[in-house]
Amino acid sequence: GQQLNQSPQSMFIQEGEDVSMNCTSSSIFNTWLWYKQDPGEGPVLLIALYKAGELTSNGRLTAQFGITRKDSFLNISASIPSDVGIYFCAGQLPRGSNFGNEKLTFGTGTRLTIIP
Amino acid sequence: NAGVTQTPKFQVLKTGQSMTLQCAQDMNHEYMSWYRQDPGMGLRLIHYSVGAGITDQGEVPNGYNVSRSTTEDFPLRLLSAAPSQTSVYFCASSPGSLRRTDTQYFGPGTRLTVL
Q1: How far apart are CA A77 and CA A21, in angstroms?
Q2: pLDDT, one tens digit for every residue, chain A (116 residues)
Q3: A102 contact residues in B (CB cutoff 8 A)
Q4: Are the beta carbons of A104 and B107 separated by less than 8 Å?
Q5: Which of A67, A78, A95, B6 has its CA 20 to 30 A from that of B24?
Q6: Using CA atoms, how far apart are residues B70 and B25, in angstroms rounded to an integer?
Q7: Contacts with A66 (C-beta within 8 Å, 6 or more apart), sequence order
């Protein structure tokens, strides 16, 4: 199956710091999504990206769809305690690809911990 | 409007037992899917359905069956549980196909342990 490499795997930061994480793929995607998962809950969509080069913000979160269509980045500015959780990227392949355009491929997640 | 609900929340099975994980949504969504989440692996698609009566395999379908007799329900059946199926299972739904994936909603998950 498709592979999405997400890094870093974990981050330990202090409150107020900025956070950056990224996802890279061996395949071209036509949609990139970023989710956050709190403990014991399902993932919740944060940002969706649909065009190469697109830069989209949602409050303190900013995500970009890479020009090559093989990567995406998520930044969180001025982190706060409720930012703790696991962040996942997900990609959707172009219509007509073998894997089908109805399915998402997820990254392995970045676990964000805020040190008091 | 409860969104996507999953039952049970926790389950322990013995190897070889069968069981059904329930998923229901009350948003009249056409598209539903099942994922499993394992440490270090992200979420992997097991099966999905684009509407009542239509199902298809995802990335890791072996050992699982699904059916979609109604729009609301999408149960996942484990035919003969194996320790490799120990995982957290998530159901998700969206109004239409994933051409507009910003509308996919996940349930709270079922944590399954197979001994």
Answers
A1: 12
A2: 566 899 999 999 999 999 999 999 988 888 899 999 998 899 999 999 989 999 999 999 999 999 999 999 999 999 999 999 999 999 887 665 444 445 788 999 999 999 88
A3: 31, 48, 50, 56, 97-98
A4: no
A5: A95
A6: 11
A7: A52, A53, A72, A73
